[in-house]
Task: structure prediction
Amino acid sequence: MADAQIAQAVALEISTVSPFPAADLVWGYVVQARPEGGLRVDTALASRKQVQGFLYQQHERLKGGDAEVWAFSEAGTPIALAGWGGDRRARHAALHRRISYCLLLGALLLVGAMAVTPIAQLRLRAIEAAVGYSELQGRAMPVVTQREAFMQTIERMGQLREALSEQADGIRLLEVLTQVLLDDTSLQSIEVKGLKVRISGLTANAATLMQQLGQQAGFKDVRAPVAAVRNPGATLDSFNIEFQLDPAVWSIAGAGALQSVASAGAVAQVNPAASTPAAPAPGAVQPDPAATGAPAADIASASAPRKSRFSSGSETPRPVPTPNKVQP
Result:
């Protein structure tokens, strides 16, 4: 049964057994569960006038306080009689309930805080780490940008070096060919494709020319795609020679450029044809063979014009005008 139904049943039972008038009746009850089942209700009945008279007699002890009236059952259970101190007891009970609820809520909050604290700490650490990483990334951004620009520059330099390693230095090549080729050799054409060179022209001995080119530093795979031909009645061989240039020596980006120039100069010093005297300038005064005591043949060879290595080989040397002799 619900508490309200129990109270109604007890009030009905007391109204039937009470010896006091209804206006003078005060009562109270307690309910206990029985082990064998059901409920045990202990009630106490009293006259209101008698209770008030007793309280008046005890006013010295009560000292004007709001007293409560209790009765005890046979089992010693206290039974509060309604009408004295009930409101205060209800207020105290409500206050105690609120305090209990607050304590319970505080305990739950404390337990929840204890459970959430590690997670909150980890969360705060993660946020702090993210903020620190963002700040570090912002400070390192200029350095990262410079590094990317540096890497791009290195990549472009590598591409440029790779492109230059496949290109021959044409000016140095012409200089070295001028020093290496003999005076009896004239070039009619020179073709350079990357590091592959093909030359053609006229020479007195094509085999000697190929051997000389093969000994030159930086020239390799010297070969003749077609055999040298000497036309009937001609004194010079028509040659076509191909060779590869060493990229370490002849490429524009090669590291051995100075060494190749030095080796070419050494070959020029060893070549006896390089010591041939140059032709005198037009209008220059030539010494008299008789006055100088030199053989006429030596003076004639010294005054002969030198043929260009890059001519077609068919030009006829122009006669050198004989200057007037200077009388002593």
About this structure: Residues 86-165 form one domain. The CA atoms of residues 42 and 74 lie 9 Å apart.
